[in-house]
Amino acid sequence: MKPSISNHKLLALIKNDNVTILDVRGKDEFERGHIFGALHIPVDQILQRHHEIPEGKQIVTYCGKGAGRSENAAKILNENGKRAFWLEGGYQQWPFVSPSDATIRESLIFHQLFERESSSYTYLLADPATREAIIIDPVLETVERDLSLIQELDLKLLYILETHIHADHITGSAEIKKRTSAKSAVSKKAGVCCADLELTENQELKFGGYSLKVMETPGHTSESLSFYCEGMIFTGDSLMIRGTGRTDFQQGSANDLYESIHKKIFALPDDTKVYPAHDYKGALFSTIALERRFNPRVGDNKSQDEFVQLMKELKLAEPTKIHEAVPANLACGKTNSRMAKAPACT
Which of 8, 60, 137, 249 maximizes the CB count within 10 A of its CB? Predict the structure, then answer.
C-alpha cells in the first residue's frame, strides 16, 4: 500500500495535534508560499537532516503536486525508522492555501485556519499586491496564530468580520483590534455598539482590488450573515457541509433559515465554494451544487415544512460556553465585560 494521505486525513491529524508537516520543495518554492507551520527540509537534504524532525508524531511530506519528491522523501524517512506519509495532491490541492487551483492562488491570498476545541474555522483573505486583508470569525484562543500568520505574510489587516454572535467560543476580535489598525464589523441587527462597522445587506467591503459582499442570512440566529468573495461563500452557521446550524436559541428561526438558504445561498452558481464556520467530521469545504443535492436537511428538494419539523425534533444540548461566550461576544470579545446583553445603540 502506498504511504499516502488525503487532505481530510491530514486535517484529522492536525485536529489531534499529532503531525509534523514537512515541506520538501526547494527554498524558492517554500518562500513563495507554504502550509502554515510546515517544517522545511528539501528532499535532497532529507537523509542528512532527518534528525531535525521532532519525534513522537506522524510525519506528512508534501511537494507541489503530490507524489514525486514528497513520495521519495516519505520513503527515505520510513527506511530510517520514521513513520511518514506523503500528501496526495500536494500544496496545489491543499484547500487551506487555495480554494481550488493555482490560478486563484496566484491572485487572492487565502488561508483556512482551524481551532480544535470548538471545531471552528477562521478565514484570512488578502490582496497579494496591496497586502490589504480581512479576517472572518477569529477565535480568542488562536489569536497569536492568526497574528503570526498576518505578520509572516506582511499583510495589513483592514477588517475583522463576524458571521454572527457565536455561542460556542469567544471571538478574537477585541484582541486583534487592540494589536492592529483593523476595524471590527458585525451585523447591524446584532446591536453591538462596540463594533466599528454595522453590516447590512449588499454592503461591500474593499481590500485591495477585491470586494467582499455582505448577505443577510438569518435563521441560525437573527443577525446571521454570510460573505461572498471570488466564487466563495462564507456561510457561518447557516449552511454547513451536509447540515445547517441549529435554530433553537438567539432568536433563531427554522423558517427564516430555510428561506435564507434557498432564496439566497442556493441562488449562487453551482460551483461556488461553501466555507462554513464549523465542521465536526473533517470536511474542509463543499459547493452549492453538492449541498443542493446531498444536504440531508435542506437539499434534495426538501420542503420548508419538512425542514421546520426536522428542526423541531432535534434535541440538542446547549453549547457549553454559551453563558460565557454570548455576553463576551456582545462586547466584541472583551472577556472582562459583565454585560448580559448589548446596550442600546444611540
Answer: 137
